[in-house]
Amino acid sequence: MGGIFAFACRSPRDGSAILEGLRRLTYRGYDSVGVAFLDDKIEVKKAMGPADRNPGLFSFTSRVALGHTRYATRGWPTVENAHPILDCTGRVAVVMDGVIDNYEQLRSSLASRGHRLVTTTDTEVIPHLLEEGKGPGDLLSALRGTFSAAYVRSGDERVWFVQDGQPLVIGRGQDCLYLASDLPSLYGFADEAVIVPEGSYGYISASGELSVFSADGSPVQQLTSKRVKYEPGSLDKAGYPHYMLKEIYEIPEALERTTHSLMDKYLRLSGMILYGARRAFIIGNGTSLHAGMVSAYYFSSLGGMSIDVVSAAEFPYYALDSVGTGTVVLAVSQSGETSDVIRSVKMAKQRGAVIVGVTNVLGSRLALESNVYLPIGAGPELAVPATKTFTSTLVALMLLAAHVGLTAGRLSQAELNELYNDIRSFSRSLAEDMPAIDAAASKIAGELRDSRDAYVVSSGITYPVALEGALKLKEAAMLHAEGVQLGELRHGPMVLARGNYPIIVIKPREEAAEELYSRVMSELRAREAKVIEVSDSTQAALQAPRAPRPELYPIAAVAPLQLLAYRVGFERGLPIDSPPGLAKAITT
Ligand code: G6P
């Protein structure tokens, strides 16, 4: 995955334009950066880290240049795997944003036909297919996945592109045409931009030509244009005031990406490892721990297994004595760098445990320490309060639990396919519902602005979501909130439930919890507590979107809570993305 920025100009242009474009696309990933430009032949320069840290790469002038900033999903973050990637002859240079699902078959058939593949990426199949004389239309039919790609060829002053699910836009400046992954990156380069339609290909040329074709080769006649209107200061946040809000709005897209990012064979392998485990633990900290707690319900309902969930900080004291050969530790960490997780993983490995890592960062220490790792592929998350990585981790763990069920014979392949379909259709409906959820959260945020404390209450699969909602209120809104199990509310915490004390109740999805829920709700009403209900009922103060199956309900329920925490923090004028004294990952 990553960001693409290219130009094709009538007269030679300074490479600093690519640097600026990629800098604005850094939010799409920054494991490595690279650029190709046309001289007598194609010149390629690559380096590790973001564009900002590698300005030297862009000291060139050329009429045609193509840059990329990478978020590693297939293939480690290394200089070799950085884009652009060349074919065997060095005459084609390709960059890509997205994933190609069938790349392994393509890589082996290309290798058997004598191609030299020097990276471990999925992108590399493209330059070699082009080398064999395939055209951009052939790429649309040969490649399965969600991606957009762009390439330059030596002796051809055009930037070619293929769009199959990842965004691309084209802007026309005075002397140049620009191709980019998003509209804001074109600010100052072009006033208007054409949206490249999905399932199309085309080129921009140094002579000022722009052509777009449908997959069947017919020219696309009507192209939609949009104004490029963002202020430079807000570019990296794509117009959102904070990364946290942007990342919440990215949840639906990230869920979809998670389903593509997780490869079937690694899910199967991890599923088999867990199924064969004598004892299994899930470890993580903070939000990742909460995701692990939700997944214990998945492992029970989908996988038919029970699994212990322990804070990675507590694992050495709680569980280490019972760890040995036959133990599997499922380690969950967004950053893959959290020291408690790494320490516990190392200790468990020393005692013979097998480690299955679940992380958003491919080259992280957790990925390196794991026997098998599952990349959640949610895209870079920059706000300290984790949001889209929580929901993507839930999907990753849900799919893993389903693969345990598949191995155990509890679930058929058809049922697994149905789960994938449900996740994808749910993410589409969540995208539509997001503005309405945000509006409701904003309204309630006004009521909570002056509150000092709150409870977030639930039971069953949404009990860990209550813990996560309380964590978000602490991190983003600096509001002291406590996650409480619904039944436990009556064993002490209820003492505070009066007057204006806010109690956010996520209605449990489990039928067995209904009676308890009604009893607690009437007790709360009798005490005239300030109850804020989260459920998919139209009566709820914070209405969650409808989840097509119980496993997706935690995702439906957490989105309103994340937005509420964000909106309270916003009302209070807090530094939401980097709360005082916190860090995205505690690495020491
Ligand atoms: C820090 C962050 C939390 C995060 C936790 C675990 O404490 O402030 O927001 O949930 O680390 O991070 P990880 O990268 O391991 O998921």
Automatic annotation (TrEMBL):
Task: Kindly give the InterPro entries that the UniProt entry links to this protein.
Answer: GATase_2_dom, GFAT, GlmS/AgaS_SIS, GlmS/FrlB_SIS, Ntn_hydrolases_N, SIS_dom, SIS_dom_sf
As given in the record, the signal peptide range reads none
Gene3D superfamilies in the record: Glucose-6-phosphate isomerase like protein, domain 1, Glutamine Phosphoribosylpyrophosphate, subunit 1, domain 1
Question: Catalytic activity, per the record?
Answer: D-fructose 6-phosphate + L-glutamine = D-glucosamine 6-phosphate + L-glutamate
The record, for CDD domains, names: SIS_GlmS_GlmD_1, SIS_GlmS_GlmD_2
Return the EC number: 2.6.1.16
**Keyword rRNA processing included in the entry's annotation:** no
Q: Which residues form the SIS domain?
A: 269-410, 444-579
Tell me which SUPFAM superfamilies the record gives: N-terminal nucleophile aminohydrolases (Ntn hydrolases), SIS domain
- What Gene Ontology molecular-function terms does this entry list? carbohydrate derivative binding; glutamine-fructose-6-phosphate transaminase (isomerizing) activity
Protein name according to UniProt: glutamine--fructose-6-phosphate transaminase (isomerizing)
Query: What is the protein's species of origin?
Result: Acidilobus saccharovorans (strain DSM 16705 / JCM 18335 / VKM B-2471 / 345-15)
The UniProt entry's GO biological process terms, in alphabetical order, are: fructose 6-phosphate metabolic process; protein N-linked glycosylation; UDP-N-acetylglucosamine metabolic process
